[in-house]
Amino acid sequence: MHSPLTRRGFLAAGSGLAAATVLPGLSGCSALTGADSDPDTLVVHSQLGTTAPGSPTYLAALDRFRKENPGLKVKNLINGDDLAQVYETSRLARKEPDVVMVNLYDKTLAWTDVGATVDVKGYLDDWGLRTRVLPQALAEWTDAKGRVRAFPYFATNWPIAFNRALLDRAGVDAIPATGDELIAAARKLRAKGIAPVTVGGNDWTGQKLLAQIIQTFLTEDEAKHAYTTGDFGSRGAREGIEYFVTLRDAGVFADKAQGLIADTMFTQFNTGAAAIESAMSSALAKVPPAVARHTEVGGWPLAEGAVHDKPTILRTYTLIGFWISPNGTKKIEAVEKFLRFMYRPDTVARFIKESGRDMALRSDVVSTDFPLVAAAQQLGSKVGQALLPDVYVPPAAAQPLITATSTSFTRGTGAAKVRAVLEAAYRSA
C-alpha cells in the first residue's frame, strides 16, 4: 500500500503534473534551490544541525570530513519534522539533495519503491560496509523485495524510565512490574500530587506506547499482522486494548494525556512533575543529572496472561539512515567518501560518547557520559521486547493513527471505541 502522495506525487510527476498541484502549501520549499549540480559539492539533507540530539557531533564530523577532503565541498540542508515533505517537493522538481538523513517511517517507507531514492544494497557490498552493520539493523532497512532502503546509522533503545526518588516519596517500594502494581503506584503518586506516567497522547510518543501496551497479548507475528492490516479484532489485540483502557481509567497516565505532546512529556519528567515516562535514548540523554541519578530504566509492566515473560521495551534500528537520491548516483564517488567517513569506527564512537546516541553499527563503545542511555544499552535479557510498528504501518495510516491515539487516551473511551478508531485510521490507506 502507498499513500495518496506516493501515487499522485512521484508517479504523477512523470506525466507532467506540477508539484504545487500535488503538494500544496508545503513549508521549507526553499530547499528546491538547495541541490547543487557541481560535481565537487555534496548536498546532504538532514535533521541534524540545530537542536536535534547529535547535532554538535554531526557538525564537527562535517568539519573533519571537509578537512580530510579539501577538494570536496559539503552543503548541509537542515529541516525538522517537515524534512520528508521538503525532500519530496525537491525530488518532484528533480533538484533533490544527494544524500538524505532521515528515519524509516510514514512517507519515507514509499521512497525506494517509487524511485525517490535508490536501493543501496549494491553500494553497501561494493564499498565493503555491510560488515559494519548490525544484522538486525540490516533486516529492518531491507524491504519485502530485498532492497536496502538506506545505509543504517542511528538506532534507539526505548525503555521505561522510573524516577526512583518520586516513587520513594509516594511510598512505592519497588519498580512496578505488573499492571496491578502500576495502578497501585499511580494511586500513591497522585496522592502526593505527582503525575504517574507522562505521555504525549497527542503525538508519536503516545502512539508508540499505545502500540506497546496493545502487544501485551500479541506475539510478534500477530503484532505485525495487526499493524500491517489494521485488523485489531483478534483476541490478543482486543485483550491488549482492554488492558490499556483499564490502566488509563485507573489514572495511570497524566491528566489530559490526550492533549499532551512529546515536549510536555519530557518537561514533566525532567522537572520531577511526573514519575514515569517511555523514553527513547535521545530523551534519556537529556534527562538532567539531578533527575538521572535517581532514575532507573526497565520495561512496561505486564498483565496476567501476557505473551511476554518480562516487562517490555521497544528497540529500533531505523532512527536515521543515509538515503541516496537519484541525483546522488551522479556523484557516487563523493557519496562513497562521505559514507565511508561516517561509518568509520572513530566517527561512530564520537556519536556514542559525545551525544549519547545508540547506533545501528557495530561498536564496543558505551555512552558512559549518559548513564541512562548506557543503562538502557545494558538491559539485554532483563526485559522483553515489543514490536515497533513503524515499518509495518501503511504511510497513509501513520498520521490518522495519531488522531486515533488521542481519542484512545481520552478517559472514558471504551475498548470497542478504541478499536474502532484504530481500524478507521487504516481505511484511508
TrEMBL record:
Q: Which domain of life is it from?
A: Bacteria
Signal peptide per UniProt: none
State the Pfam families in the record. SBP_bac_1
Matches recorded under PANTHER family: ABC TRANSPORTER SUBSTRATE-BINDING PROTEIN, ARABINOSE-BINDING PROTEIN-RELATED
The name this protein carries in UniProt is Carbohydrate ABC transporter substrate-binding protein
Species annotation: Streptomyces malaysiensis
Lineage per the UniProt record: Bacteria, Bacillati, Actinomycetota, Actinomycetes, Kitasatosporales
